[in-house]
Design brief:
Mean pLDDT: 94
Number of helices: 6
Order of helices and strands: HHHHHH
Largest sheet: none
CATH topology: Serine Threonine Protein Phosphatase 5, Tetratricopeptide repeat
Distance between the termini: 37 Å
InterPro entries: NLR-like, TPR-like_helical_dom_sf
Strand content: under 5%
Pfam family, one: TPR_12
Number of domains: 1
CATH class: Mainly Alpha
Low-confidence stretches: none
CATH superfamily: Tetratricopeptide repeat domain
Number of strands: 0
Helix content: over 70%
Length: about 120
């Protein structure tokens, strides 16, 4: 049985997909949020699948260095790190670090958070 939070996220996702299309940024943000929920619930395969969907959509819609893209890249890195997949985590963190350095600069707190994750 789905818990109430998961059910609400899925309903929101279905609504955004119908109203705005699957690749709209609000839909993708809901996909990313559902991935966070799945990760918190220990549903790691589902979390990864949703993060990858959000990442692909953000890259296509906004580019590889947009804040929303990089947030999802970082989230995917955290998921991999928590699974002990160091190589995959490092790849995601390096992507996020490079993008955040270019967009926000080295001293921004979001950039520093990535350095901390590494």
């Amino acid at each position: 049985k789905l818990d109430k939070t998961e059910e609400m996220h899925i309903q929101a996702l279905q609504g955004f997909e119908e109203a705005l299309r699957p690749k709209h940024t609000l839909t993708l943000t809901t996909v990313n949020n559902l991935a966070v929920l799945y990760a918190d619930q220990g549903k790691l395969g589902e979390a990864e699948r949703m993060y990858m969907r959000a990442l692909q959509g953000y890259k296509e819609a906004l580019g590889p260095n947009h804040t929303l893209t990089l947030n999802t890249v970082n989230n995917l890195g955290l998921l991999y790190a928590n699974q002990g997949k160091r190589s995959e985590a490092e790849k995601m963190y390096m992507w996020a670090l490079q993008g955040r350095k270019e967009v926000l600069g080295l001293k921004h707190t979001l950039t520093l958070n990535i350095i901390n994750n590494l």
